[in-house]
Design goal:
Blueprint lengths: L13 H13 L2 H10 L12 H13 L5 H16 L9 H11 L2 H10 L12 E2 L2 E12 L4 H7 L13 E9 L4 E9 L4 H6 L9 E5 L6 H8 L4 E4 L19
Parallel strand pairs: 2-5, 5-6
Antiparallel strand pairs: 1-2, 2-3, 3-4
Length: 255
């Protein structure tokens, strides 16, 4: 039996073209350049790694977290050369990669996320719907970041009475579409910030027609009231024996 071809006629690996194609379909080149202009991060002069390539590179790093940074760049550029037809993009050194990412900063990535990422489930998507409601959930977690003085000052570090953790750590809370696992709204904070405080910033992203699920640590009058004001329906867990009193402000619908 003949083996299946793994490369396109010009030598590009098929998987590379597909991977970059998925990125470019979700985040179009025109949209990325628009965000770069808005955030004043567009490349002024021609570089080995222009700003729009760096944006794709940062996203590729998240998809290929087990690969070395230069390997990810080679993978990305091979696909981009085929996809954009005619772009003369070259690999660069590790220091060049660092400088390119520093020039880009975080602002374009945040704006791109806020403008593009949204619930994507269709009617036939399994696990995304319940009796006409779009199922979403709110939850939080932590993530280790690079061990730098700047990150420790910005995010903090876990520890106990004996020693500190090896890496600084940030805390995040997200709204996620359960059927697709798309995190369509996220709030970042320091390790010692409360998930409840971070969650308050996300309630405005809920919409009528959604059924929001949450664990019992999120149940409280202030957050419940803000979530209800969005028009979404809520299904939040509670402790076995909550001590609701008239002064505590029991959420509407909780008994």
């Amino acid at each position: 039996m003949a083996s299946r071809p793994t490369r396109l006629p010009d030598g590009t690996r098929i998987l590379d073209a597909i991977g970059v194609g998925v990125l470019s379909k979700t985040y179009s080149l025109s949209k990325i350049k628009e965000v770069l202009r808005t955030t004043k991060k567009a490349s002024i002069r021609e570089r080995r790694m222009p700003a729009h390539v760096v944006v794709y590179y940062v996203m590729a790093l998240a998809l290929c977290s087990r690969m070395a940074s230069q390997e990810v760049l080679c993978w990305l550029l091979e696909g981009i050369r085929w996809l954009l037809q005619g772009g003369e993009y070259e690999t660069t050194s590790k220091s060049g990669i660092v400088q390119a990412r520093q020039r880009l900063g975080w602002e374009p990535l945040q704006q791109l996320y806020e403008e593009v990422v949204h619930p994507i489930a269709e009617k036939q998507t399994r696990g995304a719907w319940y009796r006409g409601w779009r199922l979403v959930a709110i939850d939080g977690s932590t993530m280790s970041v690079a061990d730098t003085a700047e990150n420790e000052q910005a995010w903090g570090r876990a520890g106990n009475q004996r020693e500190k953790a090896a890496y600084p750590c940030l805390r995040f809370v997200s709204l996620v579409e359960t059927g697709t696992h798309v995190l369509f709204a996220t709030a970042l904070g320091g390790y010692h910030d409360s998930e409840i405080t971070l969650a308050e910033a996300l309630m405005g992203q809920l919409r009528a027609g959604m059924l929001c699920l949450a664990d019992r640590q999120f149940l409280g009058y202030k957050l419940w009231k803000r979530a209800r004001a969005s028009g979404a329906d809520l299904l939040w867990r509670a402790k076995n024996s909550p001590a609701w009193t008239a002064s505590s402000g029991c959420p509407t619908g909780v008994t």
